[in-house]
Design brief:
This protein has helices at about 40-50, 70, 75-80, 90-100, and strands at about 1-5, 5-15, 15-25, 30, 60, 85. The chain is α/β, with parallel strands linked by helices and about 100 residues long. The protein has a six-stranded mixed β-sheet, with helices on one face.
């Protein structure tokens, strides 16, 4: 759902609830939080395709914190893109372990 020009809220299924990912869409796509490991295939990629964008356009991931329901989707996205990942220094070691 576009909540402001170029800013989209993506609901990612999580247990009986959902977590939110935010897509900032311009020349490329930046994602703020990416849900759990299944979120890219289950919610993020289908949403991007529904607005006429390709997941390969993801250039940046910005993580608010290193809980798995916010950063679990990093590895699957990194497998498909060459995006840069930004996270606070306290979460950095956790994120890089999941990518190893």
């Amino acid at each position: 759902m576009e909540i402001a020009k170029g800013i989209h809220l993506i609901k990612c299924p999580f247990s009986a609830y959902f977590v939110s990912s935010c897509a900032i869409v311009g020349d490329t796509i930046a994602l703020v939080d990416v849900g759990e490991a299944s979120s890219p295939e289950a919610a993020i990629y289908p949403y991007l395709k529904s607005i006429g964008r390709d997941p390969s356009e993801i250039s940046h991931i910005i993580l608010t914190h290193a809980h798995f329901d916010h950063c679990g989707g990093v590895a699957p996205i990194k497998e498909k893109t060459d995006c840069k990942v930004y996270v606070h220094k306290l979460g950095k070691s956790h994120i890089w372990r999941t990518l190893a």
